[in-house]
Amino acid sequence: MRNLLTSLAAVASTLVITLAGTGCAPAWSETTTSNTPGEKGALTFEYDSCVFGCGLDRPALQGSAVTLEVQGGTANAGLVARLSNPAVGTIANQYYSCDEGTCSLFVDIETKQAGETRVEVADKTGALVDGVALRVHAAARIDVDVHGHEAAADGVFSVKQGEKLEVESTVFDADGAKLAFSHHGVAQVYADKGIVGPDDELELFGRSDVEKAVANRAGETTLALRAVGAESIVRFRVTK
Fold it and tell me: Where are the domains of the chain?
């Protein structure tokens, strides 16, 4: 899987360079790095929620879960991650994944409050191998995209009864930086699930930036998207 993503990333980089040369860089190209070297240069760190990789120059969303992939270890290294500031975040889980002899340490972090902490990776003796800063910011804005739909002049999305919907949230901090999160960073609150509700109740747990919904019956309703520090209201009009 890692080799596939690496190949896709190379293709994406080529496309970005080619299109940028013609003044047509795609909307999904970003200026953030694909990964962040550790302070000692021994390991690299990245968020695993980005398809083509993104480094820790992007802040994490307060009140969410993020998963970091730490590369540079080996299968028997026994590397263990720790955080220098538990008030900012705590490690919920960490585990190794290996592919063709190359291993990565994955670290699940629950972010608690805005601030900065160091992610430190130590060997089995407790000696520091490498570390990197992780910044956590509150949300200031949530941009919403209802896939395949444009809001009318009155700001309402018109959809058909029975239609499946995908509502994507992109969260930014007060400086306009896009915030990273893997799970439960954005809560979805339906005003009337009888009109528009979650497509699968099981997906209410561990959901990330895309909420799957369904238009159940005709009427008008709203969906509130909430993160720590920001809220966005989506208005729907369901017709038969």
Answer: 1-30, 32-137, 141-239
Bigger pLDDT: 11 or 221?
221
In order, the DSSP letters of 79-114 are -EEEES-TTTEEEEEEEEEEETTEEEEEEEEEE-SS
pLDDT in tens, 205-231: 445 689 999 999 999 999 999 999 999
Per the prediction, the chain carries an average pLDDT of 85
Pick the CATH number of 32-137 from 3.40.50.1000, 2.60.40.10, 2.60.40.1120, 3.50.50.60: 2.60.40.10
Q: How far is CA 77 from CA 7, 68, 122, 123, 138, in A?
A: 27, 18, 10, 7, 35
Fold (CATH) for 141-239: Immunoglobulin-like (2.60.40)
Q: What is the pLDDT of residue 159?
A: 98
Q: Given CA atoms 143, 145, 150, 155 in this order, what sign does their dihedral have?
A: negative
Residue 76 · residue 101 · CB < 8 Å: no
Q: How many whole angstroms separate alpha carbon 20 and alpha carbon 65?
A: 33
Q: What is the pLDDT of residue 20?
A: 31
CA geometry: angle 27, 33, 38, nearest 5 deg = 160
Closest CA to 200 of 182, 183, 185, 188: 188
- pLDDT of 6 over the 60 cut: no
Q: What are the DSSP calls for 144-173, one per residue?
A: EEETT----TTSEEEEETT-EEEEEEEEE-
Predicted structure pTM score: 0.82
